[in-house]
From TrEMBL:
This is V-type proton ATPase subunit a. Essential component of the vacuolar proton pump (V-ATPase), a multimeric enzyme that catalyzes the translocation of protons across the membranes. Required for assembly and activity of the V-ATPase. It comes from Collichthys lucidus (Big head croaker). Pfam families: V_ATPase_I. GO terms for cellular component: plasma membrane; vacuolar proton-transporting V-type ATPase, V0 domain. Belongs to the V-ATPase 116 kDa subunit family. The lineage of its organism: Eukaryota, Metazoa, Chordata, Craniata, Vertebrata. Keywords: Coiled coil, Hydrogen ion transport, Ion transport, Membrane, Transmembrane, Transmembrane helix, Transport. One of its GO terms (molecular function) is proton-transporting ATPase activity, rotational mechanism. Its main location: membrane. GO terms for biological process: vacuolar acidification. The keyword Translocase does not apply.
């Protein structure tokens, strides 16, 4: 819990790794995820570092693995279970993996190219068969024309003699040529217009659509094609026609000169297609066997290559000592994990067989460490809400523990409904029960992943909604009479206030709580169910729901205390008046109760005598509180800049500062301890650096004063606006209740009013519609609205008061957190 509240204590450490065991030591650290490495070669280009060739080999293997995964996915072959977690391969085994992958890539490439060539040949033969079959009708045309056939009338004798073939036309002296082929259906109209414009009518175009879909050789998608036959006059016209066909990417095939030749070609095509089907089947079967064999090891290879590449990347961040026999690395590490870090280095040295062990050494530093907050599957969702606002500064108080309670509670105040809360809780509970299901965890749907990762947030929101729904006594806009109402109508008749004559003429009657016996006592839990029948229910609920820093001590005295006084003297006093009026005034004297709003306004105008006082001595106390609040503003504005100015200038001149340069230190450790002690006392001496050298940082008083002025104005105005912003709790709560009531009145009440036999059957679709609208509007849309408003209340109104969020998140070197290139491309 302390880690969740303040974060882990971090330290900077140096790792001394022997050259022979560095690879194994970093592999051990990657499995554990303990440390964050710093770059000790920031001025060296990425392509000039020592292990750049090894990283290039890893990228080449990632390319081959990506190719294999795409082919496996294309063949619809499922990968084995991903429970395996192989270790990083040793450098001497890398070449064997590389050769195996290259050999598999070459074999797979050859088989794939052969398959594609066979498929293209099969497509060409299939198209040729369709062309011969359809063009037979163009020569021996029946009297009934097909709807898609078109023919020009330059040669009217073709219309008269339906049995005349083209050899007869050649004997008549008409030097005709023929071009036949296939074209995509979408291009046929433009193709026809182009032929007419270019050839000036010296062509005959006939075409008909192929009944079945043919696979496009370019895209592989099924497309509709059209068979065409062009008869042209003269060689020059023929050259133009061929160029037009090339422009429109037509598939041209030779046209037989006689029916005998046509029949021979068709018979030969049929035999070749059968042979191609057999060869293609065997090729696909062999390709599938190769892919199945590759799929058994491809996931292991992906993990190994990812780990190997990450290790070499970390080795490039290290530097060599003067002897070039030892690697030096600097890491941020949690103090509590130092013993585990030492054991990991010892294990890496043992695996590599090094004679000299690697070791770790803590070093002093004044660099701000990264922030590490350990979470589990329950707290990680709430921590993500806080981190979305900003990562906390080092050892800063973390709002996440408070958010675990306040976030679902504020959501439930706006969403409070027992029925809706139960549905939300059951949905979240189902996700929690099946949280280890791989199909639910690893989906491509980002919206579902967002819901699944926030399952514990949804569970808490649902449970709190059930609680507030009981307080509001609201279940699908209806009240539950569990304990019996505390209001009695009989007492109104007994007292003579109501009479039978007046009841029949009035639609609205008023219960008077001052009449003895009308109000017998409060409802044990929540709102009395009788208010669901009251005409002033909305007015009553309106009233009901509305009632509903570190190691720098000068920040406490000059910033925190003035802000606290300003807030408590004004709005703390407002809360006090609300509670006082609530406790002192009862239903009998409620008409004489003064208005808190008028009193609060008169408090600033110093006009307390103008209205009836709420309590004795109220005027004097209000004047005192206003004076304290006003005086805290200049302290907040000028206190911190003046103190820092005196700290950086006045104390040096007076010789009061206990400077490090005036004290002889026997070791760097003593210097580090002294600096840490002075930081705790609040001194911000800026002559410290991570290298131990003194670097004087200039203090700009004007800049500090401007920054503090902006903060003061923002805080004072924010106290008013942020306090008013909490009214959204009341507004959204009423809106949700009214929308639920409207949905009930316009849907369910219509079905329940039918008292005939048909009404039961009619109630089934009505209830289905009501359920769909309830889930889509009241649960999803209204829930999302309440979630966003609760998020804003935490970020702007809550965390803005104390949480800076200016830190840097601790990013440990861990193989489990590093996505592979295949995962980036969505192949895994």
């Amino acid at each position: 819990m302390s880690s969740l509240l303040r974060g882990e204590e971090m330290c900077l450490a140096q790792l001394f790794l022997q050259s022979g065991s560095a690879y194994d030591c970093i592999s051990e650290l990657g499995e554990l995820g303990l440390v964050e490495f710093r770059d000790l070669n920031p001025s060296v280009n990425a392509f000039q570092r020592k292990h750049v060739n090894e990283i290039k080999k890893c990228e080449e293997m990632e390319r081959i693995l990506g190719y294999l995964l795409r082919e496996v996915k294309k063949a619809d072959i499922s990968l084995p279970e991903r429970d395996v977690n192989p270790g990083a391969p040793l450098p001497k085994h890398v070449m064997a993996i590389m050769e195996q992958l290259q050999r598999l890539e070459v074999e797979l490439g050859e088989v794939t190219r052969n398959k594609e060539k066979l498929q293209r040949n099969l497509l060409e033969l299939t198209e040729y068969t369709h062309m011969l079959r359809i063009t037979r009708n163009f020569v021996q045309r029946t009297a009934e024309r097909e709807p898609l056939q078109v023919q020009y009338e330059e040669f009217p004798f073709l219309e008269k003699d339906t049995m005349m073939d083209y050899s007869s036309m050649q004997r008549l002296g008409a030097k005709l040529g023929f071009i036949s082929g296939l074209i995509q259906r979408t291009k046929i109209e433009a193709f026809e217009r182009m032929l007419w414009r270019v050839c000036k009518g010296y062509t005959i175009l006939s075409y008909a659509e192929v009944e079945e879909y043919l696979d496009s050789p370019d895209t592989g998608e099924p497309t509709k094609s059209v068979v065409f036959l062009i008869s042209y006059w003269g060689e020059q016209i023929g050259q133009k026609v061929k160029k037009i066909c090339d422009c429109y990417h037509c598939h041209l095939y030779p046209y037989p000169s006689s029916n005998e030749e046509r029949n021979d070609v068709v018979e030969g095509l049929r035999t070749r297609i059968q042979d191609l089907h057999t060869v293609l089947y065997r090729t696909e079967d062999y390709l599938r066997q190769v892919l199945i064999k590759a799929s058994e090891s491809v996931y292991t290879w992906v993990i190994q290559v990812k780990k190997m590449k990450a290790i070499y990347y970390i080795l490039n961040l290290c530097s060599f000592d003067v002897t070039n026999k030892c690697l030096i690395a600097e890491v941020w590490c949690p103090v509590n994990d130092i013993p585990t870090l030492r054991r990991a280095l010892e294990e890496g040295s043992r695996k590599s067989g090094a004679t000299v062990p690697s070791f770790v050494n803590r070093i002093p530093t004044n660099d701000t460490p990264p922030t590490l907050i350990r979470t589990n599957k329950f707290t990680s969702g709430f921590q993500s809400i806080v981190d979305a606002y900003g990562v906390g500064s080092y050892r800063e108080v973390n709002p996440a523990p408070f958010t675990i309670i306040t976030f679902p509670f504020l959501f439930a105040v706006m969403f409070g409904d027992l029925g809706h809360g139960v549905i939300m809780t059951l949905f979240a509970f189902w996700m929690v029960l099946y949280e280890n299901n791989r199909k639910l965890k690893r989906t491509r749907n980002e919206i579902w992943n967002t819901f699944f990762e926030g399952r514990y947030i949804i569970l808490m929101m649902g449970l709190f909604s059930i609680y507030t729904g009981l307080i509001y006594n609201d279940c699908f806009s209806k009240s539950l009479n569990i304990f019996g109402s505390g209001w009695s109508v009989k007492a109104m008749f007994n007292a003579g206030v109501w009479k039978m004559d007046g009841i029949h003429g009035n639609h609205f009657l008023t219960l008077d709580p001052n009449v003895t016996g009308v109000f017998t006592g409060p409802y044990p839990l929540g709102i009395d169910p009788i208010w669901n029948l009251a005409s002033n229910r909305l007015t009553f609920l309106n009233s009901y729901k509305m009632k509903m820093h570190f190691r720098k001590k000068y920040n406490v005295y000059l910033v925190f205390l003035p802000e606290l006084l300003f807030l408590l003297c004004l709005f703390g006093y407002l809360v006090f008046m609300i509670l006082y009026k609530w406790l002192v005034f009862s239903a009998k004297d409620s008409r004489q109760a003064p208005s808190i709003l008028i009193h609060f306004i008169n408090m600033f105008l110093m006009q307390g005598d103008a209205v009836q006082p709420l309590y004795p001595g109220q005027n004097g106390l209000q004047v005192f509180l206003v004076v304290i609040a006003v005086l805290s503003v200049p302290v907040l504005l000028l206190g911190k800049p003046l103190y820092l100015y005196w700290l950086h200038n006045g104390r040096h001149r007076l010789g009061m500062y206990r400077g490090y340069e005036r004290v002889r230190r026997n070791s760097e450790e003593e210097l580090y301890l002294l600096r840490a002690h002075d930081m705790e006392e609040g001194s911000s001496h800026s002559d410290l650096s991570s290298s131990g050298e003194c670097q004087t940082e200039e203090f700009d008083f004007a800049d500090e004063l401007l920054h503090q002025a902006i903060h003061t104005i923002e805080y004072c105005l924010g106290c008013v606006s942020n306090t008013a912003s909490y009214l959204r709790l009341w507004a959204l709560s009423l809106a949700h209740a009214q929308l639920s009531e409207v949905l009930w009145a316009m849907v369910m009440r219509v079905g329940l009013k039918m008292d005939t036999t048909l009404g039961v059957l009619f109630l089934v679709p009505v209830f289905g519609l009501f359920a769909v609208l309830t889930v889509s509007i009241l649960l999803v849309m209204e829930g999302l609205s309440a979630f966003l408003h609760a998020l804003r209340l935490h970020w702007v109104e809550f965390q803005n008061k104390f949480y800076s969020g200016m830190g840097v998140k601790f990013c440990p070197f861990a193989f489990s957190l590093l996505p592979s290139s295949a995962e980036h491309e969505g192949l895994l």
